[in-house]
Amino acid sequence: MDFSQRCPCGQLSFADVGRTVQVVGWADALRDHGLLLFVHLRDRTGIVQVVFAELRDQATDLRQEYCIAVTGKVVQRAPGTENPALGTGRIEVMAETLEIISRSKTLPFAISEKAMLAGASVTAEAGVSEDRRLEYRYLDLRRPSMQQIFFQRHRIIKTVRDYLDSQGFVEVETPVLTKSTPEGARDYLVPSRIHHGRFYALPQSPQLFKQLLMVSGFERYFQVVKCYRDEDLRPNRQPEFTQLDLEASFIDEEFIYSLLEEATVRMFAVGGVELPRPFPRMTYQEAMDSTGSDRPDLRFGLRFIEATDLFKSTNYGVFRRIVDGGGHIKGVNVKGQSEALSKNVLQNEYAKEIVPSFGGKGMTWMRVVGGRLESNIVQFFSDEEQRQILDRFQGETGDVILMIADISYKVVTTVLGKLRLHLAERLGLIPKDVFCPTWVTEFPLFDESDEGISSTHHPFTAPDRTDFDPTDKSALLQLRSRAYDLVMNGEELGGGSIRIHNMDTQRKIFEALGLSDTDVKEKFGFFLEALEYGTPPHGGLALGMDRVTAMILGVDSIREVIAFPKNRSAVCPLTDAPSAVTRKQLQELGLQQPAKKPAPQPPPAPKAP
Ligand code: ASP
Asked: How confident is the model at residue 609 (pLDDT cuts 50, 70, 90)?
């Protein structure tokens, strides 16, 4: 078959009228008008209408999604029959030859869509379950709107590759069959057939290798790389995902901020989104204090207002006990929403149901009516306290003031943070097509965990100071890290840190984490040794490219931007992975003992001659 004269369907235009062309692709829609049969022929560039007149009888064999080749003359459509919704709507191809290249079975769901029509937006196929779409992903991906997503994904990744290249970064591949790298999730393990009882781990990130590349003197590394994390199921997580991973030597935080801001601005520009620069920065503490989240959504207000000090000598018992016990009271002013938030909604929905479901014991609410506070508990507050509340929250008629009080700072901020998001969603306070990037910095180096303390990021993150005592838990919990997260619209797009390049500090961190010398040697001996050969100061970051792409393209689920994703249960409905393997494979891997052979029977006694 000769395709050398092929013209892409979507690229034909009025200028081609009179030309004889070959068009190939899939029969998207067929209309039989008796003497004439019309086919919308689709390839990845678009749709063109093909008219079968002389070849009409032959064309009646065609069905949807047959793969065909047509030659014919490009003609101007008759006045009144133009299709302004099609890019090629002023012309059509009068078929002179038709070749059916491949037939198609009846489709499991419709592929044809109007997405290629001018101005149509990218929408998922309505009415087909996601598992069904994933089972036939190769057909789902035939839809123009899906293809657009992957063309855009390609452009986004190419843009950032080109940018990093222009900044002297080189892409280096790191191993997939490797040793565990700590990123806080479980490893996927691959048993070794050659060394029974030993396992490779799939990388949760190339962290150690990229740091080793800095020891090697590459100075600027990046990689678009698959990472694997065996985490509990969450709607927008995938067991394998793509990171833009990078690392650089002789740099500081400012280098990373400016590099990543430029890279992010360029990637978002691919989707037509102009990001404001420079990206604002907030410390972890500021983020928690004002939004209750380390990935704050800054597209709307509802920032927390500190109110603990207002209730030092209150007669309201609940607040008084909390303040006396060293607890916290914070609130938000939901401006001008008293109509949407009736007493009934506040008391029966929020205070009794929603806030407890967030882990809060209760919620205090007050509506501002006629310049005064109104609620079920307002009588417990003195006039002076009421005045101070109005003052602190800048309460005006029509506002609703909500407060969460608890002994624990974590409970107050977490519950109020969830409440903030719930209210914003419910009240429609989140503007569309607004992007609010921010850097979150100065994270705690360690978190308290069941086993003592654990690294907030990973143990190679540089602390803000190195003169700490690795055995003093409370001092360790005060340490800040030189880590930074890039956050946008309530999502963490990525994060990284300046690393420890000094072996003694790295050892102290391991000691603080309670890792014995043997543990350390076994897990990271090779890495610690490398740090002893003239390690340059370095740092880096990784961006979750599935999330970044989904955000740029305005799709909710990262599964839409991954060609062959797992479903919500971490299963691939197309291949049915994970699936059972044969007993023989397990035996080869040393994961199952061979079935016991029946004990050999004594040979039959020789027959007496
Ligand atoms: N390895 C880190 C991660 O995957 C990113 C980094 O610290 O560069 O989250």
From this structure: very low
